Each structure stands twice: as C-alpha cells, then as structure tokens.
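Fold this: HNH endonuclease
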Amino acid sequence: MRAYFNLLNETTVLLPYTFGDENGLKRTIYFNDGWIQMIQDNTVSILGWVQMEKVKWLQNNNPEVPSLIYKLAPLDEKMRKLAHVRKLWESILKIHPVVDVFANQPIHEGSYDVDHFIPWSFVMNDELWNLMPMDSSLNSEKSNKLPCWEPFFGRFAGNQYAMYGLIHKMDGIHKLYEACYRDNLHSIWANRELYRKGNSKGEFFRILEKNMRPVYDSARRQGYEMWIRKNQMGDRTE
C-alpha cells in the first residue's frame, strides 16, 4: 500500500504527503512543500470548511436545536438588531392602540422595549414574527424565561395581526416593514405565508401558531424555565 501510494505520487498526482519505509511507531511521513504552502496560505478557508461540516452534522443530529451554529460561537447580545423593528412599532403606536401581551394594558410611545416571545438565547435571531413591544419592567422580570402559551400567545398573535393589517393598508408602515428585510425577515415561511397579503385573522393565527409552537415546545423540552407572572393580588396569570 505504501509503495503504491508513493508510486502514485511520482507518476500521477502530487499528493500532500508520502510514507517512509520504516515500520510501526518509527514510520515517517514526508509532506510535500507545495502542499504545506497551500495549507498555510488557505488555513482560514480550510478551518471554515471543517467548521461548516461539523455544524451540518450536529444540526442534522439535533433537529430541535434552532440556530445551532450561533450556539457554538455565541453572538454578543449587543449585536441584536432591533432598530428597524422598533421604528415599525413606534409608527404603529402613533395610529393604532397596542396592548401589552403580559400586562394586558395599553403600551405608550417611548416607554417600552422590543423583545422576544420565545427567548433570544434559544432562537438566536431577531425575526419579526417573534418580536413584540412590551413593558420595560416586565421585560426585565421575564428575562430568559418562557411565558405561558395561554393566554399570552393569543394576545401576541393579536398584536402581530394588527401590525400585519397596517403593513398592507398604509404605505408608510409598509416601507418600515420593508426596512426589516435585512435583519428581521429571514424565515421563508414568514415571507411566503404569514405576511403575504390576503390572510384572514384566523389564517394568520394558524400560520403563526403552526410555526411558533414547535419552537416553543422544543425550548420547554430542553429545560427553559417557565415565567409565571403574578398580579398584585398574588394570583397567577396563566
């Protein structure tokens, strides 16, 4: 085998390395100078390819973990890209009432955060379909936890549907929506199904739930803590 390998190197293809005649642990490997130079010159690309293949294998064997590549090399939370989404909601608040998903009270301009229904640490993206305006103090309380699906998903979907209606009714709102394409509208299903023109309220809710619920359930199975908000009387808001 070694003889064939070395002969192939001499007659047909310049191989990256050949074997010496020694046996066992004394066997030597001779690297071709040209290949050494090529590897050194392209180290970044080669390591990138190795990383990509590793991520593909891990993602295929862990289908319930979204955005696995970003969990291997976590993004700084300061890199969240919410500016365009905030401008969109700010414009909506000027012309349409929006109710806080968790407090069930009107949101006021300038006194809210834009945050994720399913925690950012799990989805590792800033997709529009998972973002909502919410009370700043409640956002701190919710932190990295999952809200109860009911009744909060219904309120969340209601706000999303209100946004959807205005996107297709008002040119100014639609332009702000288009500004979200680069950072906040990467999901194919959201562009082709959820935000397409012509969905009824029921259709919109079904599309959103069909795509969000599996992600939400996956986060629960992986141990994300549930956030149970208590009202002033100490009763749970389920």
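The CA atoms of residues 164 and 195 lie 6 Å apart. The first strand starts at residue 17 and ends at 19.
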